[in-house]
UniProtKB/TrEMBL annotation:
Species this protein is from: Vitreoscilla massiliensis
Top-level taxon of origin: Bacteria
PROSITE patterns named in the record: AMP_BINDING
Record domain AMP-binding enzyme C-terminal: where: 451-525
Family annotation (Pfam families): AMP-binding, AMP-binding_C
Protein name: Acyl-CoA synthetase
Record carries keyword Mitochondrion: no
Signal peptide: none
Domain spans labelled AMP-dependent synthetase/ligase: 26-401
Annotated family: Belongs to the ATP-dependent AMP-binding enzyme family.
Keywords, sorted A to Z: Fatty acid metabolism, Ligase, Lipid metabolism
InterPro entries in alphabetical order: AMP-bd_C (IPR025110), AMP-bd_C_sf (IPR045851), AMP-binding_CS (IPR020845), AMP-dep_synth/lig_dom (IPR000873), ANL_N_sf (IPR042099)
Amino acid sequence: MADFDTHLSAQAANYAQLTPIDHLVRTAEVYGEHLAIVHGDLRQNWRDTFTRCKQLAAALRQLGISRNHTVAVLLPNTPAMVEAHFGIPMSGGVLCTLNIRLDVEAMIFCLRHGEAEILLADTEFAEEVKQIQAALPDLKIIQVNDALGPEVAAFADTDYESLLQSAEDLDNWVLPENEWDAIALNYTSGTTGDPKGVVYHHRGAMMNSISNIMDWDMSKFPVYLWTLPMFHCNGWCFPWTIAARAGVNVCLRRFDPRVCFRLIKEFGVTHYSAAPIVHSSLANAPDDLKQGIDHVVKGSIAGAAPPEAVLAAMEAMGFEITHVYGLTEVYGPATVCVQRDDWADMDISARAAMNARQGVRSNLQDGLSVRDPISMEEVPHDGATIGELMFRGNIVMKGYLKNPKATDEAFAGGWFHTGDLGVVHPDGYVQIKDRSKDIIISGGENISSIEVEDVIYKHPDVMNCAVVAVPHEKWGEVPFAFIELREGASLTDIQLRDYCREHLARFKVPKYFAFTDIPKTSTGKVQKFALRNQAKAWVEQIPEQ
């Protein structure tokens, strides 16, 4: 047996720590004159972007930031947010992107829990910053005056541009000492208690940034529209992905279909990512907005699968939609519904059904499995046996900050437990049936809220829907459906109940319907915890049906 170890060790000449910072460095070297950021009148190339990121890193290091120091940002999708994804890690610090739609008390919790030392805050959040300053007087605030943001009185001693200009040594930036070093801290939504701090490492960020390229077959120089909040899983790692491909970041402070269609046509947007509600809004926009798009636009959708009507509308516009799935704990998307050639010959209904599945593991994710969470045995690939979706590999978080119990529970048995329940089809494609907490148990029978929602979504008068469990004296639980109708529709609960009876087993038909706005998180996910409370309160006030 040959000795492949002695005098064959890793060293400076043959081993480097993996980090997405290198995407920026290489792109600035090779494609420095290529456009990097578009925002209002701003047209910034990659060489200037690299310079500004070096300035940010050096300025932060002058303020004492180094390895494992947390720097938080409270920013919309602006140029400063793109630069923060590089400049803060280049200082050695850990980037904490705060959800801009959190209530201020939740923001304060995240800042305190993550031990943030500096906060970069857009002028849009001047009022929130005042409360943050009162609660955390030692936190240094940097005011970001975005060109398209509101003009307000100064609420900090230093603004972002002055901070960059204060940098004395542009070579004073660093690569990680170890690719396992933390690069980012992302807080979960905290719907059942305090948010949990999900820690990303440089290796995982690098891996997922490349996996995005491979999953989407993304060629060089993409034009990426920022419909997805960069505070959400670091924009699914796409700030780093776009740098790797020398693409264009088309910034967007807030989602507006009119603005999106204008930018798509003006800059030739090729890619965007979004929650289902964003795709639905684009699909249902006035026809005059959709005119003039003469190139293919690729969109990725996460969360609920694209309803048939939305998929058809997107195809009519020339949009190609890819269904992905993931969680904060796996850097955003970690599966992709790879579309097979023979699906193109199917009718729209059959194709929508195939695209509704979460699919297979992403290119650089080591493992995706559906298992019994107790025995850890993998379920058969029969499309019927339900288990819990689990991941393992490089695109999984380091763990939860300061929460070893939750980390150990999440990683039990050598897999990351998602809490999502699903099946594996004979072709190996995974499909979610429900969240473990969203399964409705009625008279001893399990009802998938997703199955019921899929049926309701197909009704032509329904724009959005969400189904939750509500307590019932006889059956234990029954389905309660919340419905948002299309403009001009006049669907009644009797009509919708009759429709459901045509497509569902009787015990799966919702017992109650409410036609109302459906509360959603900042990333477009339905807030089912809030709906469960609403449903319970609503049922308590109506006579038994």
